[in-house]
Amino acid sequence: MKKNHIIIASVVVLGLLFSLAAYFYNSQQMETKNNLATKHSSALIPFHAIKKGNPKAKVTIVEFLDPACGTCKKFHPRINELLKEYPEKLNVVVRYAPFHHGSDKMVAILEASRKQKQFWNVLDIMFETQEGWTVNHRAKPKLFWNYLKGYGFDITQIQKDMKDPTITKIIEKDLADGKLLGVRKTPTFFVNGKPLPSFGLRQLRNLVENEIAANY
Amino acid sequence: MNHEKHVNNKCWLLIFGAWLIATISTLGSLFFSEVMELTPCVLCWYQRIFMFPLAIILLVGLFPLDKKVVNYALPIAIIGLLFTVYHCLLFFGFIPESLQPCSQGVSCADDSMVLFEVLPIPILSLCSFLIIIILLLKTRTHQ
User: Fold this and answer.
1) Partner of B18 at 20 to 30 A CA spacing, among A31, A75, B36, B129?
2) B16, A7: Cβ pair inside 8 Å?
3) Which helix (H) or strand (E) segment is A93 a member of?
4) Residue A101 carries which DSSP code?
5) Which of A4, A10, A18 shows the shortest C-beta gap to B63?
């Protein structure tokens, strides 16, 4: 019947239009992302940001993370794997994007533990125990202290150092830089200043390995 | 006989038009959320709840033509319209901020609700629901 053909044709045309529009939108977005990253490359690695790996490495991953973000938790062990695999060639820089409610307090705990040179240990514990101190995607720092016991950290000192006003400034700077670089979700990665072509563990590994191959 | 065929053709066209608008609105709304990654606000969600089924119910009513589909689709469209009207009043500031039901994350009266700097999404939604309702009511007069 002719009418049925009209309906089927409309469904096909609408579906095609949707896919085409999505394709063009995405490629345009990718271009904007790349342009932002090139334009504001100086905002990627500020002096205050914490680094891990070989500081002289020719490949640097900059990660904007949120301690309360579930996907950041899943990426965390993979980043550590990459660092173990390429200890000489890779450097990781952590920037903060505390988008979740209460996450800024978790960042303060991280920065305070940095003064005891325990940043990476505390970050490991924080991600491992994330389910325990987040409730409905809200970070509850009060629930976290229990998980820190028994490792020999000076918790009272961390609680004191957390109140340091420079930490607020670091968070503000990271949020402002994130905005410049188009960071709207966590985690967001830049490998040698390049954003991921599309989001995913494999895409991150590919980009890292491509950069290592290009630079060594 | 000929008259009935003529009426059926007219009804088909009206329901088809309503389905087309519902489907375009559904795809458009999915484009905003899935491709452009705009998070739908609470009121947007309620409008989506009443727009998405229209795209399916009206399609079922066209294969083969069943004019009764109007009876099922109209209440859904009218409830959707009520949410849209409320959203528009909120967006243009006729209802004060404090009455806003949107609490988490996305505001219903935010700038992100405006496309290409001129087209507010609530207005698009209002037009869709209005046209769908008018087309369905017109079909009803032919029943």
Assistant:
1) B36
2) yes
3) strand A90-96
4) T
5) A4
- pLDDT, one tens digit per residue, over A144-185 is 999 998 888 889 999 999 999 999 999 999 999 999 998 888
Residue A100 to chain B, least CA–CA distance (Å): 10
Name the residue facing A21 among B16, B23, B31 (closest C-beta).
B31
Residue of A nearest to B20 (CA): A10
pLDDT at A6 over 60: yes
Q: For residues A115 and A153, is the Cβ–Cβ distance under 8 A?
A: no
pLDDT of residue B104: 47
CB atoms within 10 A of CB A26: 13
The whole-angstrom separation of Cα A140 and Cα A102 is 6
Tokens of A142: 């009060």
> Is B105 in CB contact (< 8 Å) with chain A?
no
- The two tokens of residue A169 are 């400034």
Q: Please report the ipTM that was assigned to this predicted complex.
A: 0.80
CA distance B140 to B77: 14
Gap between the Cα atoms of B114 and B107, Å rounded: 12
pLDDT confidence of residue B40: 84
Query: Which amino acid is located at B37 in the chain?
Result: E
Check whether B105 has a pLDDT greater than 70.
Answer: no
Residue B84 is which amino acid? Answer: T
Mean of per-residue pLDDT scores for chain A: 92
- In chain B, DSSP assigns E strands to 114-115, 119-120
CA distance B94 to chain A (A): 30
B20 vs A4, A10, A21: nearest CB: A10
Spatial distance between the Cα atoms of B22 and B48, rounded to a whole number of angstroms: 10
> Percentages helix, strand, coil for chain A, rounded to the nearest 5?
60, 15, 25
The Cα-based distances of A5 to A9, A14, A28, A79, B8 in angstroms read 6, 14, 34, 53, 17
Residue window 41-100, chain B: list those with CB within 8 Å of chain A.
Answer: 59, 62-63, 65
